[in-house]
Design brief:
Strand order of the largest sheet: 3-2-1-4-5-6-7
Radius of gyration: 23 Å
CATH superfamily of the largest domain: NAD(P)-binding Rossmann-like Domain
Family: Belongs to the short-chain dehydrogenases/reductases (SDR) family.
Distance between the termini: 41 Å
Protein name: Hydroxysteroid dehydrogenase-like protein 2
Subcellular location: Mitochondrion; Peroxisome
Number of helices: 14
Strand content: 15-25%
Largest sheet: 7 strands, parallel
GO molecular function: oxidoreductase activity
Pfam family, one: SCP2
Oligomer: single chain
Number of strands: 12
Length: about 400
């Protein structure tokens, strides 16, 4: 690539757990742009069963075109984190990007999880992520386009994700909560997002968990490296998002996912914490057209799906702006603009005068959008009041039926 297209050229990335697997893949992708990579990982001596050390990773990063700084960092030790951050700043002049990738996993039930394993997962996943973010933030705030990226899942509070490995789930959701909190706390200063794979990824950890032959059901680490690169090159206003690799790459125009498969055509194993509808997972707490923050809850969740499902075709065939005045939990004014190119939806007043204003309770609104309540029935039974263009209101019913397949 010509230097002007190398978006991470000269940027300094601090990546935990970068000696192998996903962390190293993200490092190598950035290294191709000529980035500086701080390899903050604990493997300094070759491990009996795991590939790679911070020094072999450094050689690969330099060979790919980046500059590498290997640092021995066990994220359980705060002083080691602080020392590495100081060394990074001294060597490269600052920190632009932090990738919290280091993670410990034990998929065991409550009675089968040894206390030292519980401590390990909470120390590495939650506390390590929190303390590394804390140590890097003063320097990130000075960067032009700073990002924190946590390798953690969208929070899905379905009990099925807790019952078999409660400690692991708590520790991973702890990382996701860091995203929720810090994205809001540093909004406008530092972007904070989470990235998670849609399918199992082939790493040493996966071999350990899945045993022989598991790799056929996995994708290569490249898919996460490409998705991470996409996120880290976006402006810092892109924040507070829980991103699924495949969903983002599809949005960016990637069509061929076979290139990421270890065994193209072989069925893939879905990753933890993801229900079948991944549409809910892309996009974030948006700001309304008038800058108002969306109140969280089922209504916001519904709008998140509506945004994900919008197509130019919808906008072309509908040509209307709908305002919803909702009462109850997560209520207030919301809108769906299916008139302006690209369409939009969210909390607050619509960007232009609404053609149709619908008033109803937020609970009925969610029912309507999930196909449990027909708009006609809602209208006839007095649950829905409509002002404005009735023909467009009727058109919305058609839009809803197309949408509810996605909801």
């Amino acid at each position: 690539l010509p230097p002007s297209f190398r978006k991470l050229a000269g940027c300094t990335l601090f990546i935990t757990g970068a000696s192998r697997g996903i962390g190293k893949a993200i490092a190598l992708k950035a290294a191709k742009d000529g980035a500086n990579i701080v390899i903050a990982a604990k493997t300094a001596e070759p491990h009996p069963t795991l590939p790679g050390t911070i020094y072999t990773a450094a050689e690969e990063i330099e060979a790919a075109g980046g500059k590498a700084l290997p640092c021995i960092v066990n994220v359980r030790e705060e002083q080691q984190i602080i020392n590495a951050v100081e060394k990074a700043v001294k060597t490269f002049g600052g920190i632009d990007i932090l990738v919290n990738n280091a993670s410990a996993i034990s998929l065991t039930g409550t009675l089968e999880t040894a206390t030292k394993k519980v401590n390990l997962m909470l120390d590495v996943n939650v506390r390590g992520t929190y303390l590394t973010s804390k140590a890097c933030l003063p320097y990130l705030r000075k960067s032009k386009n700073p990002h924190i990226l946590n390798l953690s899942p969208p929070m899905n509070l379905s009990p099925m994700w807790f019952k078999n490995h409660c400690a692991y789930t708590i520790s991973k959701y702890g990382m996701s909560m860091c995203v929720l909190g810090m994205a809001e706390e540093f909004r406008g200063e530092v972007a904070v997002n989470a990235l998670w794979p849609k399918t199992a990824i082939h790493t040493a950890a996966m071999d350990m968990l899945g045993g022989a032959g598991i790799e056929k059901q996995c994708r290569k680490t490249d898919i996460l490296a490409d998705a991470a690169y996409c996120i880290l090159t976006k402006p810092k206003t892109f924040t507070g998002n829980f991103i699924i690799d495949e969903v983002l790459l599809r949005e960016e125009g990637v069509k061929d996912f076979d290139v990421y498969a270890i065994a193209p055509g072989h069925p893939l194993m879905p990753d933890f914490f993801l229900d079948v509808e991944e549409k809910k997972l892309s996009g974030s707490q948006q700001e309304g057209a008038d800058g108002a923050k969306e109140p969280p809850g089922p209504v916001a969740e519904t709008f998140r799906v509506i945004r994900g499902a919008m197509t130019e075709e919808f906008v072309r065939s509908t040509q209307g702006v709908f305002q919803f005045d909702l009462s109850g939990d997560g209520g207030g004014t919301w809108y769906i603009d299916l008139k302006t190119s690209g369409g939009s939806a969210g909390f607050g007043k619509p960007p232009m005068t609404a053609d149709v204003v619908m008033s109803m309770s937020s609970a009925d609104f969610v029912k309507m959008f999930t196909g449990k309540l027909k708009p006609t029935m809602a209208f006839m039974s007095g649950k829905l009041r409509i002002k404005g263009n009735m023909a467009l209101a009727i058109k919305l019913e058609k839009v809803l039926s197309q949408l509810s397949s996605k909801l």
